Amino acid sequence: MAYRKTISDVQRAILEGRDLRHNFEQRDFAQMARAKRTVRIHLNNGKILFGRFVLPQEEKIRAKVKALGIPTEEVSTDLFAGYEIPESLRDKFHIFKSAGIAIKDMSVMAFGKQFWSALNLVRDELPGYLAKLHNAGIRHGHLHSGNIVYDPQTNRISIIDFSAAKDFGDISTYVSEECGPARIHVQERKWKDIDELMKVMGQDYQGIMPTLGFMTEEEFKDFWGKVYDLYDLKYKDEKQRTLFVYKMVYLRSKYAR
User: Fold this and answer.
1) What is the reported pLDDT for 187?
2) Please, which residues bridge with residue 185 across strands?
3) If we measure between CA atoms, which residue out of 29, 39, 37 comes closest to residue 88?
4) E strand or H helix that includes residue 157
């Protein structure tokens, strides 16, 4: 036991003393920015952090997403040895805490009950998150199963990585400082009809299909029915609802070919 502890102390001293600044030189940052890569950082305390470039547009969208009450990734304030971000890039490169396990990395064999808990949350919570995003004019752009994550400690799912997101409702967002700290308010965008919404948000519909692959046909129809009911449309009726659901069924079959 004492031998293991000694080895552990030595390893920790090496990690803390190692100069890792070469990983974050200006040239490497520029390469990462061009490739839009996310860097996975393993800390010696077992934690995992994720670093990537964050443009001002993404920062605004993330603030809006949080104001909508949708769980997403949080910027890490942890200090850790060895990593030094060039001063000129500190306002552009953010390091995020891990938000959980990506749905694509989960399986019933490896995760057991947690796997089914995650899928139940996808079925129950994701319609609300999706409708909130779209009603606010936000298209995620990369809404695949790697960006929908489950946290077993809090038993919740989060949507992460808004680096490819676009905001089509930006004019409806404003900041108020009347009541203490600045608060972001989001006024929902009212869509003309489902065709207008599908034209703008179609990329998200295609991206999310593999995540919903575990659902039976009835569960799948129910999922999209819930989304439609939560959409803020100027004109809604049962016929339009059915049409929307079957458009999603068609997209699913098209993706599965």
Assistant:
1) 53
2) 174
3) 29
4) strand 156-159
Please give the pLDDT value at position 175. Answer: 44
**Residue 223 structure tokens:** 């999922």
Look up residue 94 and give its DSSP letter: E
Across the chain, which distance is largest between two alpha carbons, in Å? 72
- Residue 186, Cα to own-chain centre: how many angstroms? 19
CA 226, 125, 111, 77 torsion-angle sign: positive
Buried b (16+ CB within 10 A) or exposed e, 202-228: eebbebbbbbbeebeeeebbebbbbbb
CA-based nearest residue to 139, from 202, 196, 84: 202
The gap between the terminal CA atoms of the chain, to the nearest Å, is 56
Give the pLDDT score at 180.
43
- Pull the structure tokens for residue 243: 């049409």
Distance of CA 105 to the CA centre of its chain: 15
Q: Quick one: pLDDT at residue 26? A: 52
| pLDDT reported for residue 17 | 46
**Mean pLDDT, consecutive 10-residue segments, the chain of 257 residues?**
52 47 51 64 74 85 92 79 61 83 83 89 96 93 94 94 85 45 56 88 94 94 97 91 95 81
Matching residue, tokens 């905001």: 167
| Amino acid, res. 64 | K
* pLDDT at site 190: 74
CA–CA separation, 244 vs 69, rounded Å?
A: 26
H or E element: which one contains 40?
strand 39-42
Please state whether beta strands 101-102 and 183-186 pair in parallel, antiparallel, or not at all (unpaired): unpaired
Q: Which domains does the chain have, with CATH numbers?
A: 18-256 (1.10.510.10)
